Amino acid sequence: MSAPLIEFEHVSVMRGATLALEDLSLKIGPGEHVAIIGPNGCGKSTFIKVITRECYPLARNGSWLNILGEDHWNVFELRSLLGIVSSDLMAYCTRDVSGLDLVLSGFFSSIGVWPHHQVTPEMRARAERALCQLEVPHLANRYTDEMSSGEARRVLLARALVHEPRALILDEPSTALDLFAQHELRQALRRLAQSGIGIVMVTHHLSDLIPEIERVILMQRGRVVADGPKREILTAERLSELFGLPVNLAERDGYYNLW
Description:
By secondary structure, this protein is of the alpha/beta class.
């Protein structure tokens, strides 16, 4: 039996003076398509940063976390097994970075390709395949600051795919995207989910959820408050309590909207 993709047991994390995650326990299996939903400040992004080793849990008896069955990882090896896409990465994209170089940089956990990086023909071929997989090969020679937000987001997805990762970890994937770009991103994510790659999506926008997402985890104040099948978890009553105001919920063709 394959090891769980992510396994947290009684994990707590401090961010400055704030307890960002409190006694968090959850398990996500290989190949699962999962959304983690909650208001800003609920601990969603801290959850991602713990996975990527950007912050660490408090050392407590009975507390542990495993990624792909291991409790210790070289951070660069880990990033080759989990494709990370976040809006934060866009802040590092400059005119000096072409689409192809941005994708190639996924091999080096950098932004852009530097003189000391040794790019092999196989790396270049895999980067070009990833751009084709996301249907953006025409962006290979375009600088990132000349791309729309939606184009740049798909190039970042290609960057995450060059290692053929076990899963994609998506942090607020539709931030700053217009309606057309959101649609294009969702279609790209649907193709990837249908290909068998696992997806763990962190968001507070229900419209980000693609129909292939089967499981939803709700977080509030650093804790899991609900976890289960999407249709059972996503109710107006639960979401009103989660976000702290009365909301309406609608579903059509597997997509959800909240207002």
